[in-house]
Amino acid sequence: MAPALLILAAGMGSRYGGMKQLDRIGPSGETIMDYSVYDAIRSGFGKVVFVIRKSFEKAFREQVADKLKGKIKVEIAFQELSDLPNGYRCPDGREKPWGTGHAIWVARDLIRENFAVINADDFYGRGAISLMADHLLSQKPGEKGKYSMVGYRLENTLSDHGHVSRGVCQVDPRGMLLNVEEFKALEQDSNGFIISNGQKTQLTRDEVVSMNFWGFGPDVFPHLEEKMMDFLATRIETEKGEFFIPMVVDELIRENKAEVRVLPSQSQWFGVTYKQDKEKAADALREMISRGMYPARLW
After folding, report:
1. In the chain, how many domains are there?
2. Which domain covers residue 54, as residue numbers?
């Protein structure tokens, strides 16, 4: 069965200053996720599932989903604060989304096949998407606890315009993920050192980091629900607490419930965390179009 591509597109874009997932970056008005879907179609993915917020469904369908009719099967899941496991209720006043782990979980009724997860506002590259597609297609149907992750070098994932959060990975000689440590507020200082929350770190710039490009089987959904209930039991009242997918993966590895193969990628990565990143992203796309990697108009 062809794998599915799950695109997390419900973010609020607070640092960007708007809905970056719908911002037009390509020369013909394409969003970054348009390029991800284009590469996914060429790589053998059978459908794409978008996770969005109900509040911008109309704009999303008009700008993104409707253009894909006849090209790939499209489904939409909604990440709403109220969608929680049985027994839990969103506290009054909560506005911040519950995080990437929750964003994946809300698609639980739409995915029955192996699937990849990416962010809507990150460009992962044709090679990386093809690498993940091949890996998912090579897995035996019904395998449980056999996951994967595309890894990038830390140096290639920093923003020139502010701090970012990254999951720094430890990988064993077999290429299997040992753990993921979440670093927040990472950036380069004026001397080229990697700092976190203003403090110098021991990071060397060569570390493998997760850019939220994961490969899972549908068996991950019960794990997500269990871990989310653990999270909510202690942090539901934390106004800005988030349930991150690297945290789930790290726990599953430590509990011997999953193993994750790291797929090293040399593909070009870029994202639009800040408004100033848009120009750099647009320049990179124009350069790839000039080399014939993409048509000037995707759809």
Report:
1. 1
2. 4-290
Q: Which secondary structure element, helix H or strand E, spans residue 130, and what is its range?
A: helix 126-138
Distance CA 254, CA 270 (A): 31
Taken as a whole, the chain contains a residue count of 299
Question: By the 8 A CB rule, do 102 and 74 touch?
Answer: no
Measured distance CA(30)–CA(38) in Å, rounded? 11
pLDDT tens for 48-99 read 999 999 999 999 999 999 999 999 999 999 999 999 999 999 999 998 999 9
- Is 299 contained in some domain? no
Give all strands (DSSP E) within 86-154, no chain letters: 115-119, 122-123, 146-153
Q: Give SS3 for 82.
A: coil
- Structural domain contains residue 298: no
Q: What is the CATH number of the domain that holds 111?
A: 3.90.550.10
Helix (H) or strand (E) holding 178: strand 177-188
Predicted TM-score (pTM) of this structure: 0.91
At 241-280, the pLDDT tens digits run 999 998 899 999 999 999 999 999 888 788 887 778 889 8
How many helices and strands (H and E) does the chain possess? 7, 13
